[in-house]
């Protein structure tokens, strides 16, 4: 797996461009996300636990916004069901290329159908597990409900959706505190104040967060019967939604 050190925002020349999942990001993404998202490694470990619990025989698993394949691999290495297939989807050619290389080095009997496409165009059927690990936040707000509704429609009864997101907090004081703590976390991971500030500028018009309550309401409206927050660290959460 490509794991170069993320120094994308160490440059001081001008305002940074809006964040894109291009080749430059793909080369450092493993380092970037592990140093930017508190609890990311634990989230992946628990996706493996959830996969073992929810994936059923002869069903499909979808990893939407699969990037380098970390969630796909967590699922693949923990499935105990037979004759299941993982469908991993990402619209970034650079991410798909790196993901394919990572999957080729993974030993597993569970096949992976790797698709270079927009998840808004993906069709869903016979799904026992769907993961969106920090993906929905990059989808336009007005398109989120329709996407989640199509996912729910394509899921088997009792299937699970893992939805991990950066969130907005309902109160200004809480928002400010959690933002400060997140920035302190990034500083502890070795990012400079310049890098933290430039990354924030780069992503502020690209990543649009929702509150926990907005996520819960939308998931219920989409057709999920249960929605539980199973993980939170500062302004990052992961939800488990059951069809």
Can you walk me through this structure?
- By secondary structure, this protein is an alpha/beta fold.
- It has one domain (17-165, 177-206, 227-243): Vaccinia Virus protein VP39 (Rossmann fold, 3-Layer(aba) Sandwich).
- It contains eight helices and seven strands.
- Strands 3-2-1-4-5-7-6 form a seven-stranded mixed beta sheet, with helices on both faces.
- Helix 3 (70-76) links the parallel strand 1 and strand 2 (85-90).
- Helix 2 (40-54) runs parallel beside helix 3 and helix 5 crosses helix 8.
- It starts with 22 loop residues before the first helix and ends with a strand.
- The mean pLDDT is 96.
Helix and strand topology:
Elements: H1 23-36, H2 40-54, E1 60-64, H3 70-76, E2 85-90, H4 93-104, E3 112-116, E4 127-133, H5 144-153, E5 155-166, H6 172-188, H7 193-203, H8 212-222, E6 226-233, E7 236-242
Parallel strand pairs: 1-2, 1-4, 2-3, 4-5
Antiparallel strand pairs: 5-7, 6-7
Helix pairs in contact: 2-3, 5-8
Quickly describe the structure.
The chain has helices spanning 23-36, 40-54, 70-76, 93-104, 144-153, 172-188, 193-203, 212-222, and strands at residues 60-64, 85-90, 112-116, 127-133, 155-166, 226-233, 236-242. The chain has 243 residues and is α/β, with parallel strands linked by helices.
- Spans of at least 5 consecutive residues whose pLDDT stays below 50 are none
Radius of gyration: 17 Å
User: What is the CATH third-level topology name?
Assistant: Rossmann fold
Largest sheet composition: 7 strands, mixed
Q: Calculate the mean pLDDT score and round it.
A: 96
Secondary structure class reads alpha/beta
Number of strands: 7
**What is the general shape?**
globular
Proportion of residues in β-strands:
15-25%
Strand order of the largest sheet: 3-2-1-4-5-7-6
CATH superfamily: Vaccinia Virus protein VP39
What is the rounded distance between the termini? 34 Å
Q: What is the CATH-assigned architecture?
A: 3-Layer(aba) Sandwich
Please tell me the total number of domains.
1
Helix content: 25-40%
Encode the helix/strand succession as letters.
HHEHEHEEHEHHHEE
**What count of helical segments does DSSP give?**
8
CATH class: Alpha Beta
């Amino acid at each position: 797996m490509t794991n170069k050190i993320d120094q994308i925002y160490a440059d001081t020349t001008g305002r940074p461009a809006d964040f894109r999942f291009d080749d430059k990001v793909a080369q450092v993404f493993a380092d970037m996300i592990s140093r930017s998202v508190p609890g990311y490694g634990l989230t992946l470990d628990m996706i493996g636990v959830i996969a073992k619990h929810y994936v059923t025989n002869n069903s499909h698993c979808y990893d939407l916004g699969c990037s380098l394949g970390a969630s796909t691999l967590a699922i693949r290495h923990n499935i105990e069901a037979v004759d299941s297939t993982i469908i991993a989807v990402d619209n970034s050619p650079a991410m798909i290329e790196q993901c394919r290389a990572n999957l080729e080095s993974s030993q597993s009997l569970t096949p992976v159908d790797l698709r270079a496409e927009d998840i808004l165009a993906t069709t869903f059927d016979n799904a026992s597990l769907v993961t969106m690990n920090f993906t929905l936040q990059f989808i336009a707000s007005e398109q989120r409900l329709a996407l989640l509704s199509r996912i729910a429609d394509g899921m088997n009864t009792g299937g699970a959706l893992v939805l991990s997101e950066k969130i907005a907090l309902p109160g200004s004081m809480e928002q400010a505190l959690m933002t400060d703590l997140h920035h302190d976390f990034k500083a502890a991971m070795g990012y400079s104040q310049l890098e933290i500030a430039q990354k924030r500028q780069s992503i502020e018009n690209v990543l649009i967060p929702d509150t926990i309550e907005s996520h819960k309401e939308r998931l219920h409206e989409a057709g999920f019967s249960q929605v539980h927050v199973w993980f939170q660290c500062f302004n990052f959460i992961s939800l488990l939604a059951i069809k």
